[in-house]
Design a protein that fits this description.
The complex is a heterodimer of chains A (about 100) and B (about 270). With about 100 residues, chain A is mainly alpha-helical. Chain A contains 5 helices and no strands. Chain B contains 13 helices and 5 strands. The chains are: A mainly alpha (about 100), B mainly alpha (about 270).
């Protein structure tokens, strides 16, 4: 078996040594950020409106009527280049066929 | 407004049935648009009943939209606040909460995105939402004693190879045909300048909890295969074989070291 040659005590011992030297990853996961995340998450357990971020009367943006303009993505997807043209199938005809079938 | 029967309406006589029916109609009303069925059952001290019910509808829908905004901040940033509010509002109407616990709300949101037009325009979006949900689940998952690497090192080689690593309750693997880690990373709220992302890259993301810290990291396809194999109950030797089949250059030592550090696995019973 291939793995038998690979997993020796040395590999595990090496991994153990490594885990004692290194600190938990990741650089992007600053402790402060996670704390904020925790606070926000904790707030979810109650009514979200309890955080005072809105009053029940002032929620016009939730009203579905006449909000077609809201159906256009205005976020970072445009900058990232992730719009559909980035994923164009080499065989557009088949993709269209699949879409119709689905 | 009071949720008592309108004294002038005597269609529903039994108090219990009356309450159930009132609740059913009120629920339908706050989750949708049609007030018709509930209006005759509600008396308002002043003002039009429909306007007063709208206050409840707005509160319910705004609360659920906010819950989703907290759970899916990157998804929201990718499509923009307004679009997200609309999407979340429609999701809330179609899939209201099933549990009286808002942190459990949103598990079906990724599948909903996939069915929507936006899921076709931005084919990576549903997987990004899956990653965000995985992070939320990891955050709220039960605690467990992490795998003691030193204990593993004390085993004989044969025992070591037949050891089955058990996932920590917080561990989640999200595999995508798109660069979901990269997308997640560049859409953190403190990243102002969003770069162009190479959408041709497929990424697997492993979420785990090291102590009280949530760890989100991209893992190589071979490592993802290793982690998946351990979830399926394969022992260390089998899982390593499967990883090596994906990539002959798989560095088991390094991968194990990272799993030990980041709490991917929990301690095994003897």
């Amino acid at each position: 078996m291939i793995a038998t040659a690979v997993i020796g005590a040395a590999v595990v011992a090496g991994a153990v040594t490594m885990s004692m030297v290194k600190t938990p990853s990741m650089e992007t996961e600053a402790p402060g950020k996670e704390q904020c995340y925790g606070v926000a998450k904790a707030g979810e357990n109650g009514c979200a409106s309890a955080n005072g971020s809105h009053t029940c009367g002032g929620l016009a943006t939730i009203d579905k009527s006449g909000q077609e303009w809201m159906l256009v993505e205005t976020g970072t997807c445009l900058k990232m280049g992730g719009q559909m043209e980035a994923f164009e199938d080499p065989k557009p005809a088949e993709a269209a066929k699949a879409a119709r079938a689905g | 407004m009071s949720l008592s029967a309108n004294p002038e309406t005597s269609a529903l006589e039994l108090p219990e049935l009356q309450l159930q029916e009132l609740q059913r109609r009120f629920r339908a009303s706050v989750l949708g648009e049609d007030d018709g069925p509930v209006l005759p059952l509600v008396a308002a001290a002043r003002g039009p009943v429909a306007a007063r019910i709208a206050v409840y509808r707005n509160t319910v829908q705004a609360s659920l939209t906010e819950v989703l905004a907290v759970a899916f901040p990157v998804t929201r940033r990718v499509v923009g606040e307004q679009f997200f509010a609309n999407l979340a509002g429609r999701f809330a109407t179609e899939t209201p909460p099933r549990l009286p616990q808002l942190s459990a709300y949103g598990g079906d949101f990724a599948a909903f995105i996939e069915r929507e037009d936006v899921g076709r325009r931005l084919p990576y979006l549903a997987d990004v939402a899956r990653l965000e949900w995985a992070r939320g689940e990891a955050y709220f998952a039960a605690d467990a004693k992490p795998l003691d690497a030193a204990r593993l090192a004390a085993l004989s080689p044969a025992e070591m190879e037949s050891t089955v690593f058990k996932w920590h309750p917080a561990t989640r693997l999200t595999t995508s045909a798109f660069p979901i880690y990269r997308i997640w990373e560049v859409n953190q709220l403190d990243v102002a300048d969003i770069p162009r992302v190479d959408m041709g890259l497929a990424q697997s993301v492993l979420v785990s909890r090291a102590g009280s810290r949530l760890v989100t990291r991209a893992v190589e396809p071979a490592d993802a295969a290793f982690v998946r194999a351990t979830a399926a109950g394969e022992n260390l030797a089998e899982a390593a074989s499967l990883a090596l089949a994906v990539d002959a250059a798989f560095d088991l030592q390094r991968a194990l070291g990272d799993h030990f550090i980041n709490g991917t696995y929990q301690d095994w019973e003897t």
